[in-house]
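User
Please review the sequence:
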Amino acid sequence: MIARAEDAEKRNRKLHVDPTIAQARVAALESHKVIADETLKQAKDEHVQKLMEAYLEEAARTLPAPPPSEELQEPVPLEEEFDPVLPPPSPEEEVINISSLLTHPGDVSD
């Protein structure tokens, strides 16, 4: 029975944790967690910065060419762009006098 009591005492000592040691372990773990959180935040910030730089570089490469100078961008009025005046008829074309057709329906040549 004494042997059992001694064995139980040994097991209790192994299982017994000093509260100050436990508190020190908790403080160390919390410190490690804070360091890990700060490192993770820094890594995320660096990643976001690299993404922004890559985006800006890509955007700079794919931007359309700058527009031509303002002088070339002024709109041309429609009347100047399309001239509705027809060219004069060539000399070979036969010109028919419409008034003669109305007065003399059988005679086309005037």
Remarks:
- The mean pLDDT is 78.
- Helices lie at 2-15, 19-62, 70-73, 78-81, 98-103.
- Residues 31 and 48 are 26 Å apart (CA to CA).
